[in-house]
Write a structure and sequence with these properties.
The structure holds two protein chains of two kinds. Chain A is an alpha/beta fold. Chain A has 17 helices and 21 strands. Helices cover about 30% and strands about 25% of the residues of chain A. Chain A has a six-stranded mixed β-sheet, with helices on both faces. In chain A, strands 17-18-19-14-20-21 form a six-stranded mixed β-sheet, with helices on both faces. By secondary structure, chain B is mainly α. In chain B, about 30% of the residues are buried. The chains are: A alpha/beta, B mainly alpha.
Chain lengths: ~500, ~325
């Protein structure tokens, strides 16, 4: 079983985890939910012994430094990971304990192909009789991906590889840190099933902001807020009859996000201008794109009028990110046209991209002020606009906040800052690539609200790429699916059955 | 489909040809812009006799100094294209012959030293950068800092003193014994023995550069998610150091190599002088002392061509690798 006793973790003097205690018995799954920056990832890493730092002696106070320090105990089975030697920890990792992390683009070795990763894993743990190809097939990794390097994989594909790797050695203790955030609904099901299979022989810890996932997988739920466990109990207790106000708020946000009605509920029948291709708007005309000789996108045509939103849904690896990069000019158009339609005819489109991971879209050593100042310098705007931009996205405008480094912003704040930066360039069109998938519920609803208001008020065309159906429903005037490189659009916008 | 490395090589070729052409022009014009007349400088000795006008003109023609500059340039370029680099009077031999005899020795030193300083630098740097501030890091970084602060000629002299004179286990100079053995195996062994100290001196000079590069990179790498994830999967030891740290260092090392090459050919000059090693460095050094402009020009052009060629290949490989991210 996994047992954590009075664990305190500090980074320098800053406390990341405070007096955390819990037990996970064999066959149980504990979901740790809470806001980002609440110390969830640090908890996962300390259980794997992956935090470099030192143990504090009795009654010793942490020093101001850039190192981790801790006290308390954490047991994986018979092994106290916070007191074990490096060799013991290395013997445990990947053997009795497995870790699945959220698939960011840097999660796999850029110099090894998918198959090499799996083979390496099997060899490193002496599983010579197992076949790497079979392992991949079990994790729904199609054959065409096996010889690709991670730079040519989508977020969801990387996530599947990570899952296969973590489960290869049938670990006794499985620690999952946002294991499905990058997956589309189909692969999410496969992943959830693989976490459920054999879970009666495992101790699982699930770290997530996705309460739906917690509900499906977890037998127990703990709520972590600012490094402290505010509530812990069985899943029914915590999720259905939450005691703390914080948990109630978290759950309420989730419900709101799920039930958000489409803005234009009366919009059955569609919008004539979406079909008519008249007026101002972003036009995609017969886009074709291939990668390594393989067609990725074929014959993509669409029209997004100013002030309207087109949502493009698609499974992982369907070419969403490539299309987003094409629209925003990061990728050269191979065949076809992207232009802005106005009265005079075709003009060059002014597009701003809102990426999935806001922290990686900004230099971490820049302050909030510098990020916006730079964007305003580029667009020739004057500094007085800076405050207005911040207000528009609902961020504070005091000088303390302006001096904050971007790496210290929470995910939601960072994403709003990226939107503000995008607005500073006065684009005609915003392209948002999974703008909410890395955010918690609260931040997600804020970001969606901001996107909606700038789209309507500033008369911007918005192209939203997502696998989050709820987000698409709440924002979009028209929803299209990207399937096998083709854009398939339903005539009328999908309406929410619940409304 | 054309492999990307070929495209990279093609795109890098033009600029290097241009650089080479400019260098040839520079090498042609520089000696001619020096004050004084090379023929007079050459004959300026106490024992010289007065030359008749005809003799002087003949000598000028031999030096490639007949006619005005455009004519001279034409002759010079035509000779260059035919592979004729001129005739060295002090050595009484064609420059191309002299270079042909000395370049292999220089390349021997460089090709032996390169793996040593690259591998030692990478291995040490990775080990230190994996756990900065730990025992190994403190010892190794201290030692490398000391080595880095010693100029290459000093460390070469110290090595010579230590292993050639105080404890004479290795030959102190030259590339082979005075009378090379007729047995090819014995001869190879002698050459290797003579190369040990120069190679060591050269490696010591370059090791610090690559050690600090690898250490700095490894510190950043050890924070990157893919390394942390690999540790979480139980990848460790040799595999972690080669496939994860080493492979990621490769592009950075290559990029640094392309600029370190010039420094390497400079360092080899000191090393060859200290060990009286018959390579190009030694040749260039003597050419400077003898004011042997023809030899100097030829050596500069060939060495520059060599540096550009290696730099071209390394750059193309580095660009192809960088695409992977």
């Amino acid at each position: 079983m996994i047992r954590v006793e009075q664990l305190n973790l500090y980074y320098g003097r800053q406390s990341l985890l405070e007096d955390v205690s819990f037990e996970i018995h064999k066959g149980q799954t504990l979901a740790v939910i809470g806001e980002p920056g609440g110390g969830k990832t640090s908890l996962a890493r300390s259980l794997m012994g992956l935090i470099q730092g030192r143990r504090l002696a009795e009654d010793e106070q942490p020093l101001a430094s850039s190192h981790f320090s801790w006290n308390g105990e954490a047991w994986l089975g018979d092994m106290n990971v916070l007191r074990s030697s490096r060799a013991q920890l290395q013997g445990m990792r990947g053997c009795s304990a497995g870790l699945i992390v959220q698939a960011l683009s840097d999660a796999l070795n850029p110099h090894l192909t998918v198959l090499q990763h799996v083979q390496e894993m099997l060899q490193a743990h002496g599983l010579y009789e197992r076949d790497a190809l079979e392992e991949c097939a079990r994790g729904n990794i199609p054959e065409r991906l096996l010889h690709r390097y991670p730079s040519a994989l989508s977020g969801g594909e990387i996530q599947r590889v990570l899952t296969v790797l973590a489960l290869a050695n049938s670990p006794e203790f499985l620690i999952m840190d946002e294991p499905t955030a990058a997956l589309d609904s189909f692969n999410r099901e496969i992943a959830i099933r693989s976490f459920q299979a054999g879970s009666e022989d495992r101790c699982q810890m699930l770290i997530t902001h996705d309460i739906e996932l917690a509900r499906r997988l977890a037998s127990h739920v703990a709520v972590l807020r600012k490094g402290r466990l505010t509530e812990i109990g069985t899943a029914e207790e915590v999720l259905d009859r939450p005691r703390s106000i914080y948990t109630q708020q978290l759950l309420k946000l989730r419900r709101n996000a799920h039930n958000s009605a489409p803005i234009l509920a009366s919009g059955e029948g569609g919008y004539p201008e979406l079909e008519a291709r008249s007026g101002h708007g972003l036009t995609l005309d017969k886009l074709h794109h291939s990668f390594d000789g393989r067609a990725l996108l074929s014959n993509i045509s669409a029209f997004v009028p100013a002030g309207r939103c087109l949502a493009i849904l698609g499974g992982s690896g369907s070419g969403k990110t490539t299309l987003a990069r094409l629209l925003s000019g990061y990728e050269t158009v191979q065949d076809g046209f992207v232009y802005w339609q106005n009265e005079e005819g075709r003009a060059k489109s002014v597009v701003a991209l809102i990426p999935q991971h806001p922290h990686r879209a900004m230099a971490c050593h820049f302050t909030v002020y510098e990020v916006l100042k730079e964007a305003l310098m580029l667009s020739g705007g004057d500094q007085s606009e800076l405050t207005r931009l911040l207000e528009r996205v609902g961020l504070p405008t005091d000088s303390d906040f302006l001096r904050r480094k971007t790496r210290k912003l929470s995910g939601g704040e960072a994403q709003r800052l990226v939107i503000a930066r995008a607005l500073a360039t006065r684009p005609q069109c915003l392209v948002a690539d999974e703008p909410t998938s890395a955010l918690d519920m609260q931040a997600r609803s804020q970001v969606l609200e901001i996107l909606r208001s700038v789209m309507r008020n500033k008369k911007m065309a918005l192209v939203l790429f997502t696998h989050d159906h709820a987000a698409a429903r709440s924002l979009a005037d028209k929803v299209c699916h990207l399937e096998q490189g083709e854009l398939i659009c339903s005539q009328a916008p999908q309406t929410n059955a619940a409304s | 489909m054309v492999p990307p490395i070929i495209l990279n090589m093609l795109s890098g070729l033009g600029i290097r040809l241009l650089v080479f052409a400019l260098l040839v022009l520079l090498v042609f014009f520089l000696p001619r812009m020096l004050p004084g007349d090379p023929v007079e400088v050459f004959l300026a000795s106490d024992l010289s006799r007065n030359l008749t006008g005809a003799e002087s003109a003949e000598l000028r023609a031999q030096f490639g100094l007949a006619g005005d500059w455009p004519q001279q340039l034409g002759v010079y370029l035509w000779d260059l294209i035919r592979g004729d680099l001129g005739y060295s009077v002090p050595h009484a031999a064609p420059v191309s012959e002299l270079l042909k005899a000395s370049i292999p020795w220089t390349l021997l030193l460089i090709t032996c030293a390169a793996p040593i300083f690259l591998l030692a630098g990478a291995a040490g740097g990775i080990e230190a950068g994996k756990a900065p501030g730990a025992f190994f890091d403190r010892i190794a970084t201290g030692a490398v800092t000391v080595v880095a602060s010693i100029p290459p000629f000093t460390s070469a002299v110290l090595l010579l003193l230590a292993f050639g004179i105080v404890w004479p286990v290795l030959p102190s100079g030259g590339s082979e014994p005075l009378f090379p053995s007729s047995n090819p195996i014995q001869r190879d062994f002698d050459i290797a023995r003579h190369a040990v100290l120069p190679v060591l001196a050269l490696s010591l000079h370059e090791i610090s550069r690559f050690y600090f590069l690898a250490r700095g990179e490894a510190i950043t790498l050890s924070q990157r998610p893919f390394i942390l994830n690999a540790c979480g999967r139980g990848i460790k030891g040799w595999r972690l150091r080669t496939a994860y740290y080493g492979r990621s260092l490769f592009p950075v090392f290559l990029a640094r190599m392309s600029d370190a090459l010039t420094g390497l050919f400079g360092a080899v000059l000191f090393v060859e002088i200290v060990f009286s090693y018959p390579g190009t460095g030694h040749l260039i050094y003597n050419a400077i002392l003898d004011r042997d402009y023809v030899l100097l020009q030829g050596a500069v052009i060939v060495m520059a061509g060599l540096v550009l060629l290696l730099n071209w290949v390394i750059d193309a490989v580095a660009t192809s690798l960088a695409r992977r991210g």
